[in-house]
């Protein structure tokens, strides 16, 4: 198995309006570090998992709709909690759509909202 990881970050605002989330119920900002790992069993004809420049561009395209946005007002999060897990799923789904013509490439999104906690989402069963 081969892998390529690229990273970036995104600054968002959101609230998690349920008592389960304690003080995070209130509107607050977050800078989220994002790392995406692309995998494949065999290298392509160019002997790469994915071109690094393309991987960076794909990640930037996935993050652009989230940058400096209040996710409480973002149409893709309307009516659902914008937890780190949900944000990772959103990014993974976007990347999966962008790579729909290359289903052999696996995608895992790793988010870190603070130095002590991280979440990951692996896109399952690529078409």
Strand content bin: 25-35%
Helix content: 10-25%
- Give average pLDDT, whole number: 95
Name of the CATH superfamily: 6-pyruvoyl tetrahydropterin synthase/QueD
Structural class: alpha+beta
End-to-end CA span: 19 Å
Overall, the morphology is: elongated
Note the total helix count.
2
CATH class: Alpha Beta
- Here the CATH topology equals Tetrahydropterin Synthase, Chain A
Order of helices and strands: EEHEHEE
According to DSSP, the number of beta strands is 5
Low-confidence blocks of residues: none
Biggest sheet: strand arrangement: 3-1-2-4-5
Largest sheet properties: 5 strands, mixed
Number of domains: 1
Pfam families: PTPS
Cofactor: Zn(2+)
EC number: 4.1.2.50
Protein name: 6-carboxy-5,6,7,8-tetrahydropterin synthase
Describe this structure in words.
With 127 residues, this protein is α+β, with helices and mostly antiparallel strands. The protein has one domain: 6-pyruvoyl tetrahydropterin synthase/QueD (Tetrahydropterin Synthase, Chain A). The protein is 21% helix and 34% strand. The chain contains 2 helices and 5 strands; from the N terminus they run E-E-H-E-H-E-E. It has helices at 52-63, 84-98, and strands spanning 2-14, 28-40, 69-70, 106-114, 117-122. It has a 5-stranded mixed beta sheet with strand order 3-1-2-4-5. Strand 4 (106-114) and strand 5 form a beta hairpin. Helix 1 packs across helix 2 (84-98). The chain is elongated and about 50 Å long. It starts with a strand and ends in a 5-residue tail after the last strand. The model has no long low-confidence stretch (mean pLDDT 95).
